[in-house]
Amino acid sequence: MTLILCHSAKGGVGTTFLAAQLAIRFAQAGRQVTAIDGSGQDSLKLHFGILPTQFAPNWSKSHTMPLVMSNVSLIDAHLDIREEYFLNSLRRGDLAREKGAIIIVDINSADRNLFRDLYDLADLHICPISPDPAALVSLSQLGGDQRTTELEKTVYVFNMQDDRHKLSRHSYRFVKELFDTRLVGTVRRDQAVFEALAMFEPLTKIAPNSVALSDLDELAQSILNMSELSDMPNFPDSDTSPSDPQAVNPSGSRVAS
Ligand SMILES: Nc1ncnc2c1ncn2[C@@H]1O[C@H](COP(=O)(O)OP(=O)(O)OP(=O)(O)O)[C@@H](O)[C@H]1O
Ligand SMILES: [Mg+2]
Fold this sequence. Notes:
Pfam families: CBP_BcsQ
CATH superfamily: P-loop containing nucleotide triphosphate hydrolases
Bound molecules: adenosine-5'-triphosphate, magnesium ion
InterPro entries: Cellulose_synthase_operon_BcsQ (IPR017746), DNA_Partitioning_ATPase (IPR050678), P-loop_NTPase (IPR027417)
Protein name: ATPase
Helix content: 25-40%
Distance between the termini: 24 Å
Structural class: alpha/beta
Organism: Altericroceibacterium spongiae
């Protein structure tokens, strides 16, 4: 089982969006995927086309009343996620029994304590960054006492990229220089993301040709190519050798560039 945290020190950068979209793509790649809303905002479900009036079950009810959308099991765990019984259940892998199973947790930007509590348990942390000076400044807060560049399980995604704007181009260059191979992907800004949410429909249905969707496909593949995640017997890239010129990130994970 692989536990992935999605969290940024800054709100509104696309953490929930990426958590949902990656969960959908991991499921499409054949993984057993559980997406956990640990944010208390109840917005993860919206990216699956679920109405605000429909509710994902909490952890205790998820076995008897599962909510599966796009082959992803959705759980609202914001009330359980700090409790020892829930953490033990994560440790035991109760929510993800199949080989190669993935649990992806959406954590609110303001909830640094939860993020730090779960970091030790996690295999990977995905931190979205947007081309916004406040988001860039907030990076220094991510690791608490630890320097952000030394967070070994953390990889970064440049979201809401828009190369028509100088700030976006410069922000990307800054982030690339800072994190190098730990910057595992970019997702372009696309108005269709807002429109899909407004219509309570999945992005794939509202805008199948969205540029964000093709970026997300590439991003999901890059993340699945990391050695920690490519443990499925039939996973297409699991036999690629570590000397593959497609890059090795500083923690030794393989990352397709
Ligand atoms: N690449 C993108 N293009 C266009 N809109 C996007 C993109 N990524 C995210 N958004 C939109 O931006 C808004 C903020 O995204 P999201 O809710 O995922 O942020 P967040 O980081 O989870 O915020 P919070 O910390 O408050 O939970 C949402 O309406 C989302 O759909
Ligand atoms: Mg969010």
